[in-house]
Write a structure and sequence with these properties.
By secondary structure, the chain is an alpha/beta fold. Helices cover about 30% and strands about 25% of the residues. The protein folds into two domains: about 1-185, Rossmann fold, CATH 3.40.50; about 190-410, Rossmann fold (3-Layer(aba) Sandwich). The strands form five sheets. Strands 12-11-8-13-16-17-18-19 form an eight-stranded mixed sheet, sandwiched between helices. A five-stranded parallel sheet has the order 2-1-3-4-5, sandwiched between helices. It has a two-stranded antiparallel ribbon with strand order 6-7. The structure holds cytidine-5'-triphosphate (CTP).
Length: about 400
C-alpha cells in the first residue's frame, strides 16, 4: 500500500513525522509531499530519512534532475495515479481553502486535484480560524466531495489559546487511514438505494405536514457507500443538505412520490436503505387555494402507503432491505416488533428521546437490530456511523442462524 502524506505549513507540521512512523508500522509505504510553508517548520530531510524516498516540495523539478524521484515529466499525475490514499496532516486553513476551491498552485494542491484516490484531511489551526465560517464552509464542501475529515481536538494551542484546533492525535489519523484503506472499494459492484429526509404532505399550496428529519444520516450513508465504491441512488425528500458528489440524486416531496421512485429503482439495487422519515398520514383532501383562518380547524388525515413493507413484498432473492425506526419509548422492543412486522432484514433503531443526538445533530447512536441480534453502535459522528452501519449491513450476507418467531422475544 502506498500512502502519500501531505504536510502543510502549520506548527503541527513536526507531528507529521510521528504520523509517518506510525503508518510505516502498518506496512505502508509512505511518501511525503510538503508545501513551501511546511518547509519553514520542518526540513524535508526529516521525512526523506524516515521514508527512504525523496520528498516532493515543488512542481518545478525537471525529471532529469537528481532531485526528481519519478521518471515521468508530469510528476503530480504520476504521483496521483500511484498513490492509494492522500492524507494531509496538518491541513492548514489555507490548504483547506485551496482544496475546496480547486486552486492548484503547488505540488500538493495539484496532486489533490489530479488523484482519484481517497483523501483524508486532519486540520490544525488557531481556534478562531477553525471556527471561521469560511473555514467551516470549506470543510463542509470537502466533506460533500467525500474527503474524510479527522476533526481537530480541543486543547491548548500553540498560539496560546485554548479551544478546538489542535491536530488530532496520531492514532486517530492512523485509524482513519486504515479504515479508508480497508474499506476501499469493498462495495464495488453494489448498487445501493438510500432514502433520506422527511417527506412533506401538502395541506394547501403553502402549508404541509412534515417532520424534524434533517436527512443527515441518509446523506452520510449515501456518501460513505459512494466512497466505498458502490453505485448510489439517493432518493431524497427536501433537506438543507448538499448532495454528495458522485451520487445519483432523485428529489421527491411527498410519500407517494417517494414510493413510486423507490419501487421503480429498487429493481436495480442490491441493497435498499430506508433512512427517510416518511409521513404515516397525509391530509385526506388538499385545499386548492390557501386556507383562510376561520376559527377551530379539524383536518382529516388518511394513512399513507408503507413503502418499506411494500418494498419487502417485492424483494428479489439476495436483495437486502434495511429500515430505520425512530422510537421515543421502549426502543428495542418497539424496534424489534417493527422489524418483524415489516419483514426487513434489519432495522437501524434511533432512540430519539436521548438528548444531543439524532434528528438535526451531526452525531448519533443507534442499535442495529436483526431478528436475532442487537448491536449497539455508540455515539459517534453520523459519517463514522454510516460506515459502521454499512459494515453491519454487509455482515447480513454472512450465514445467519435460522430462527423462529418465538425465539426472538426478549
Ligand atoms: N416507512 C415507509 N413508509 C411509511 C412509513 C415508514 O417506508 N409510510 C419506513 C421508514 O422509511 C423507516 C421505517 O419505515 O425505514 C420505519 O419508520 P417509522 O415511522 O418508525 O415506522 P412506522 O411503520 O411508521 O411505525 P410507527 O407506528 O412507529 O410510526
Amino acid at each position: 500500500m502506498k500512502v502519500t502524506v501531505g504536510v502543510s505549513g502549520g506548527i503541527a507540521a513536526y507531528k507529521a513525522a510521528e504520523l509517518v512512523r506510525a503508518l510505516q508500522q502498518h506496512a505502508i509505504d509512505v511518501h511525503v509531499v510538503m508545501t513551501e510553508a511546511a518547509m519553514q517548520f520542518v526540513q524535508p530531510l526529516t521525512f526523506a530519512s524516515l521514508t527512504g524516498h525523496k520528498v516532493i516540495t515543488t512542481l518545478w523539478v525537471a525529471p532529469e534532475s537528481p532531485d526528481s524521484n519519478l521518471d515521468s515529466a508530469i510528476e503530480h499525475i504520476e504521483a496521483a495515479q500511484t498513490t492509494d490514499l492522500l492524507v494531509v496532516a496538518p491541513a492548514t486553513a489555507n490548504i483547506l481553502a485551496k482544496f475546496a476551491h480547486g486552486i492548484a498552485d503547488d505540488f500538493l494542491t495539484t496532486l489533490y486535484l489530479a488523484t482519484t484516490a481517497p483523501v483524508i484531511v486532519a486540520p490544525a489551526m488557531n481556534v478562531n480560524m477553525w471556527q471561521h465560517p469560511a473555514t467551516q464552509a470549506n470543510v463542509e464542501s470537502l466533506a460533500a466531495r467525500n474527503v474524510r475529515i479527522v476533526p481537530p481536538e480541543v486543547g491548548y494551542l500553540a498560539c496560546g489559546m485554548t479551544g478546538s484546533g489542535r491536530l488530532a492525535d496520531t492514532p486517530a489519523i492512523v485509524e482513519a487511514v486504515l479504515d479508508v484503506l480497508q474499506h476501499r472499494n469493498d462495495l464495488a459492484g453494489e448498487t445501493i438505494l438510500v432514502t433520506a429526509g422527511g417527506t412533506r404532505e401538502a395541506l394547501d399550496p403553502v402549508r404541509f405536514l412534515g417532520n424534524r428529519s434533517s436527512g443527515k444520516m441518509g446523506y452520510a450513508l449515501a456518501e460513505a457507500a459512494e466512497r466505498r465504491g458502490a453505485r448510489v441512488v439517493l432518493v431524497t425528500a427536501p433537506t438543507a443538505l448538499r448532495p454528495p458528489a458522485g451520487v445519483e440524486v432523485i428529489s421527491v416531496i411527498n410519500t407517494e412520490q417517494m414510493r413510486e421512485v423507490v419501487l421503480n429503482r429498487m429493481r436495480e439495487a442490491s441493497i435498499v436503505i430506508k433512512a427517510a422519515a416518511v409521513a404515516d398520514y397525509r391530509p385526506a383532501k388538499q385545499a386548492e387555494q390557501k386556507m383562510k383562518r376561520s376559527g377551530p380547524l379539524t383536518i382529516e388525515l388518511e394513512p399513507t402507503e408503507d413503502i418499506l413493507a411494500e418494498a419487502v413484498s417485492r424483494r428479489r432473492p439476495g436483495q437486502l432491505i434495511v429500515g430505520f425506526a425512530a422510537e421515543t419509548q421502549d426502543a428495542v422492543a418497539h424496534g424489534r416488533a417493527k422489524l418483524m412486522r415489516k419483514g426487513a432484514d434489519a432495522i437501524v433503531l434511533n432512540d430519539v428521546s436521548r438528548e444531543g443526538i439524532g434528528f438535526d445533530s451531526d452525531r448519533n447512536a443507534v442499535t442495529f437490530l436483526t431478528p436475532t441480534t442487537a448491536v449497539e453502535l455508540p455515539e459517534m459522528s453520523k459519517r463514522d456511523l454510516a460506515d459502521r452501519i454499512l459494515g453491519e449491513i454487509l455482515g447480513l450476507r454472512r450465514p445467519q442462524k435460522v430462527i423462529t418467531e418465538s425465539s426472538v422475544i426478549e
